[in-house]
UniProtKB/TrEMBL annotation:
GO BP terms, alphabetized: thiamine biosynthetic process; thiamine diphosphate biosynthetic process
Annotated metabolic or biological route of this protein: Cofactor biosynthesis; thiamine diphosphate biosynthesis
One MF annotation (Gene Ontology) recorded for this entry: glycine oxidase activity
Keyword Oxidoreductase belongs to the record: yes
UniProt-recorded name of the protein: Glycine oxidase ThiO
EC number: 1.4.3.19
GO cellular component terms attached to this protein's record: cytoplasm
C-alpha cells in the first residue's frame, strides 16, 4: 500500500528517508527552507564525513557504536545505487600523537580500548609501518591504526541523495520551512499537508518541539597537489581536536572546532590558526597547500549528545545526530522505517 509521507527537513536524514520511501513506492513530500537542492544550510554538507565507530567512542556510547557498524555495512550498496559518483573509502583511520602529548593520547587510547569490543581496539603502529601507510606524514612519536574505518565525500553524497530521491519520485518543496507540525500533518508556507506519516528531521530547526541545540563546527578546505594521504588522520592533542581527511582532486579537509555556540558566522582566526598549525605539524607538505574555502555549521545535539528516535502514531522524530550523523544515519533510517512498519529499500536497491 502506498502511504503519504511528509518529511520536515531535507538534510542528511531527510534525503535518506526520502530516497528509501520513494523507492519503496510511497508518495513522499519533503519541505525545507533551503532555496534548492544544492544550497548548503544543512550540517550534512559541512561534515568531514569520517565514518569512525571506534574513534567516536571517545564521546559516544555502545548504541552509537552499533549504529555505526551497521551503517558501515549499509553505505556501500547505498552509494552504489546513486546516480552520480560518491567517494567512499574504508582504508581505516590513524590516531597520531607528538612526543610530549603522551598523557592526552594515552587517555584516549585507553578509553577506546576499554569501550571497543575485542578485535576493534586501536592497533599500535611502528614508525616504519606509518611510513608505509602514509609516506607524507611527519615522523610521529605514537601512532595507532583503526582498521575498517571509512570516509565519505559528504558534498557528493548530499547532492546524489537528493538527485536519487527525486528520480524515485520524491517531491522536494524548497523555500518552504515547516512552521508547525503534528501527527499526520505539516504546515509549510501557510499551506497544510495531510500525511499518513510525518517524519521530523529538522535538526537544529526542530525547536521548540525537541530540546535540540546547535554545536558550532568550523572546517577548512585545502588544495594540496602532490600531497598523498590515503586515510583520515586524527591528532591526539591535549587541547585541540584536529582531523585531516583526504578528498578526491588533491583536496584535504581539516576540521573541526567544537564550540558550544549557535553562532553561524565565518570561521574565527583563532580556529584557523589552531587547526592549521596542528595539521601542519603532522603533514609539513601542507605549507604549500592553498586555502580553498572554509565552512561553519551547527551539529544538532540533544542534552545528552546522543541520538534519539521517537515514534508515535502518525509521527516519527529523529534528532541529536551531533558529530556522528554520517556514521550512523543509514542504520537510524533503517530503524525508523522498521518503526513505521513500512517497506524501505535500505540495502540501496529498489524493491
Ligand atoms: C563541522 C562538522 C563536521 C562534521 N563531521 C562529521 C563527520 O566527520 N562524521 C559524521 O558522521 N558526522 C559529522 N558531522 C555531523 C553531521 O553533519 C550531522 O550529524 C548530520 O548532518 C545531522 O543530520 P540531520 O539530517 O539530523 O541534520 P542536517 O543535516 O542539519 O539537516 C537538517 C535539515 O532540516 C532543515 N530545517 C531546519 N528547519 C526547518 C524547518 N522549519 N522546516 C523544514 N526543514 C527545516 C535544514 O534546512 C536542514 O536541511 C559534522 C558536522 C559538522 C557541523
Amino acid at each position: 500500500m502506498s502511504l503519504r509521507i511528509a518529511i520536515a527537513g531535507a538534510g542528511l536524514l531527510g534525503r535518506l528517508f526520502a530516497l528509501h520511501l520513494a523507492r519503496a513506492g510511497h508518495a513522499v513530500r519533503v519541505f525545507d527552507p533551503a532555496p534548492d537542492a544544492q544550497a548548503r544550510g544543512a550540517a550534512g554538507w559541512t561534515a568531514a564525513g569520517m565514518l569512525s565507530p571506534v574513534a567516536e567512542l571517545e564521546c559516544a556510547d555502545e548504541q552509537v557504536f552499533a549504529l555505526g557498524l551497521r551503517s558501515l555495512a549499509l553505505w556501500p550498496a547505498l552509494v552504489a545505487s546513486l546516480p552520480s559518483p560518491v567517494d567512499l573509502r574504508f582504508a581505516g583511520s590513524l590516531l597520531l600523537a607528538h612526543r610530549g602529548d603522551e598523557g592526552a593520547a594515552r587517555r584516549v587510547i585507553d578509553l577506546l580500548a576499554a569501550k571497543a569490543p575485542a578485535g576493534r581496539a586501536p592497533q599500535p603502529v611502528t614508525g616504519e609501518q606509518l611510513r608505509e601507510l602514509e609516506p607524507d606524514v611527519q615522523r610521529m612519536a605514537h601512532a595507532w591504526l583503526l582498521p575498517g574505518e571509512g570516509q565519505i565525500d559528504t558534498v557528493q553524497a548530499m547532492a546524489a541523495l537528493a538527485e536519487a530521491a527525486a528520480a524515485a519520485g520524491a517531491r522536494f518543496h524548497w523555500s518552504r520551512p515547516v512552521e508547525s507540525l503534528g501527527a499526520g500533518w505539516v504546515q509549510a508556507a501557510g499551506e497544510r499537508t495531510e500525511a499518513d506519516w510525518v517524519i521530523d528531521v529538522r535538526g537544529t530547526g526542530a525547536r521548540p518541539e525537541q530540546p535540540v541545540r546547535g554545536v558550532r563546527g568550523e572546517i577548512i578546505h585545502l588544495h594540496a597537489p602532490g600531497l598523498h594521504l590515503n586515510r583520515p588522520l586524527r591528532l591526539l592533542h591535549p587541547r585541540h581536536r584536529v582531523y585531516i581527511v583526504p578528498r578526491t582532486g588533491d583536496r584535504i579537509v581539516v576540521g573541526a572546532s567544537e564550540i558550544e555556540s549557535e553562532d553561524r558566522s565565518p570561521i574565527s582566526v583563532r580556529s584557523i590558526v589552531e587547526l592549521l598549525t596542528a595539521a601542519h605539524s603532522v603533514l609539513p607538505a601542507l605549507a604549500e597547500a592553498r586555502l580553498l574555502h572554509t565552512d561553519t555549521n551547527l551539529r544538532p545535539a540533544l542534552p545528552d549528545n546522543l541520538p534519539e528516535l521517537r515514534c508515535a502514531p502518525g509521527m516519527l522524530e529523529v534528532n541529536g545526530l551531533f558529530r556522528h550523523g554520517w556514521l550512523i544515519a543509514p542504520a537510524l533510517v533503517e530503524e525508523g522505517l522498521a518503526r513505521l512498519g513500512v517497506a524501505g529499500a535500505t540495502d540501496g536497491n529498489p524493491p
